[in-house]
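Form 12-C: Joint structure prediction
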Amino acid sequence: MTTPPRPEGYDPRAFEPFAVTVDLAVLTVRAGRLHALLVRRGQEPYAGAWALPGGFVLPHESAGTAARRELAEETGLSGTTVAGLHLEQLHTYTEPGRDPRMRVVSVAYTALLPDPPEPRGGGDAAEARWLPHDEVPALAFDHDRILADARAHVGARLEHTCLATAFCPPEFTLGELRQVYETVWGVTLDRPNFRRKVLTTPGFVEPVEGPPRRTGARGKPAALYRAGRATALHPPLLRPEGRSA
Amino acid sequence: MTTPPRPEGYDPRAFEPFAVTVDLAVLTVRAGRLHALLVRRGQEPYAGAWALPGGFVLPHESAGTAARRELAEETGLSGTTVAGLHLEQLHTYTEPGRDPRMRVVSVAYTALLPDPPEPRGGGDAAEARWLPHDEVPALAFDHDRILADARAHVGARLEHTCLATAFCPPEFTLGELRQVYETVWGVTLDRPNFRRKVLTTPGFVEPVEGPPRRTGARGKPAALYRAGRATALHPPLLRPEGRSA
DNA sequence: GCAAAAGTGTTAGCCTTACACCCATGG
DNA sequence: CCATGGGTGTAAGGCTAACACTTTTGC
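Section 2 - Result
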């Protein structure tokens, strides 16, 4: 904002006010499929329809704070889960008419989680569930578009950032990390090449000291790694046949 | 937004309303230096201080529409100039207290222009000017941060998109395009390699048919190009020693 | 033993980098 | 004729892509 170009007799309370909300596209990788966290609406409009979790920003809150609060309220995810998740502002949706009730501007966030416990409904959400990304029905409001934008955004950021570790538990194998890429991008990657790329990128991952090893299912046990301190990837890890941002 | 979690007795008009504004980080390359379009505030708070152009979103507008309107009002740039510029949503700033008067949520945009005419003040802006990026004084509100974010964002997007052509006139030489990169990144690029990279990227630029040639200053006349239809760059054009997003 | 996944090695090819060199123009 | 920028060529090196092969586990 700059100089308040108050139109004739402008008074903040005279206009129909803007409501400011947050919407969350919460994504996880579970069983090799990308899942989104959705809630079933308990009220009109769109009562009974699936929607992204979210809600109003309160007067004292920043949008980021509101995002974490709403997520905890509506999905019953634990405080530590919500406190630790990776939140990233995605886009702000401002079209008049996107909410039939009133003028609503929504700040959308993407959030990434390692495979988490089943959520439960709460707050105004009648129900909360993980749905496989390719089985998501039509959503309320413009949430279809927000979810699509979120998926595209995450896919693009996997190329240039260490974001993928946000989908993994604190200690993970390179196979798990690779599966994040494969799931989000919908491709298969060459295991040896992926391994080299990740290990030669300083700060992407760091080995867990005590050489304990963990088994995925069957097959050779894999070494464990933690997320490193790096945040950007140079050079990037481009997806095959890639298109990006 | 999702289920409206109306706190007890919630009524949109009962809360102190949120104001929604847009702020614009308008950048151009002029004389080999990155410039930002700034306005001098005519009113309190921060009267007399430099700030980004911007203003309130009106009830019937989307934020993008408001951005173009405010830019035309405050800087006197022509309608065609404003209509044609490349606008990109950057980030939304929501911290309580970022405006001392009231709760203001601001949707920030970056806009890129080819070297344009000098703007004039208008609307609520006492004065509008291009300032070299490294001579920008402390700005009103949190506009310093917005401008810094915009510069970082543009620099990163030059690597992966055809955004650089937005800084160029409809027909331009490869030297002009290269200068955009060099100016924004603050590096010098190898001319032959830059040329090859641009020309071998399908859809980045296309040659202007009639082999007219234009002289920059002295030196051999250069061939002219138009922006192509491509929007993404694959593979990317990474900045040397690069760091990015 | 066989399937599955981890881990190591190797090679060909692409792309970038660095730099040499010629061309066209203005002073 | 020289400085300046456009345009072409080329060789070295880094990185990726593709694939062969060994290791270690569960069944």
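Section 3 - Comments
Chain A touches chain B through 72 residues (CB under 8 Å). Residues 1-10 of chain A have pLDDT under 50 and may be disordered.
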